[in-house]
Amino acid sequence: MKATDDIFNTLTLSSVVSNLDKNPHLANLKKQLSNEVEESTEVGQYIVENLKRLQSVSEELSNKKPSEINSVFSHSLASSWRFLLNYKNMAGIYQFINGAHSYVGSTRDLHQRCYVQHRLDAFKKFKRHILFYTNVITHGWINFTFRILAFVPNHLEAFTKIYNIKRDLTEKEINLLNILLSFELTLLEQVYLDLIKPDLNGSTFANWSSTNKGATGYVRSDEQNEQTSLSHLNRIYSEETKELHRINNLGKNLSNSTKEKMYKSHGGVGVKLVDINANNTIVEFKTKSLLAKELDISFRTVSRWIEDGKIHSTKSLKYPKVKLII
């Protein structure tokens, strides 16, 4: 058994009902680390040592009562938010408290998440974190206290410093260290959720938010996205549906920016196809629609392939392997 697997099997909270083994996001990160870490390498050794550290931290926390959980920083929001400027690009677990109510979260950037996002998003019309933000709207930020429960190290910087790395890190090393950061944030957030049981969180699972999971919180695979995209290709709307769309848009004044987005979404923008099998020959298409028709894919797929910048295989005999650029 690999050392990573051995450590993962002992990560639990003995004194509370824990969701560590039930959290699907945590399970996915465990799987990635277990499958990809080579323990004989420097980065592998670094990751194993940090997993042991996390094992010790979780065991220590499991013996605490909620009232015994200390914060490394606490500040009333009645006076100011400017203190968060000191925590730019710093990762950690945080808590917002209003009397007996609280919300716990994790982030790679405490300033960005709490000062830029939470502070403003609470008062936006379309928002997430309904329980949390409703409490904010009802009572105001001035009644909240902000706490940092734990800091999480920047593993890219820490690994480089500890192993005195003078070279550029490889893509695999960077990826593994980022997965480790995601794992630590998710693990610690889950530990604190299990211990504190905050009533303003919408879920009992820690949900690391680097991926946009949409309204449902469910992460779709590339294959699922592709299948959904193909299912929408050449879709025929009924006259009733068309009429409902027409009525819904009646009288709307669209900004130039919106018109431009609509124009582009309907294929009205030039696209370049890099033909990988023809020595990266570039073929230009006047619109997305022409390219979508050539490759037998949807507009959504064209947009997604442009955005991800990756090489994709197609069903086209003429262009079996392509990369799309603007």
Automatic annotation (TrEMBL):
It comes from the Eukaryota. The keyword Protease does not apply. It comes from Coniophora puteana. GO terms for molecular function: endonuclease activity. The lineage of its organism: Eukaryota, Fungi, Dikarya, Basidiomycota, Agaricomycotina. NCBIfam families: grpIintron_endo. InterPro entries: GIY-YIG_endonuc (IPR000305), GIY-YIG_endonuc_sf (IPR035901), Intron_endoG1 (IPR006350). This is GIY-YIG endonuclease. Residues 91-158 form the GIY-YIG domain.
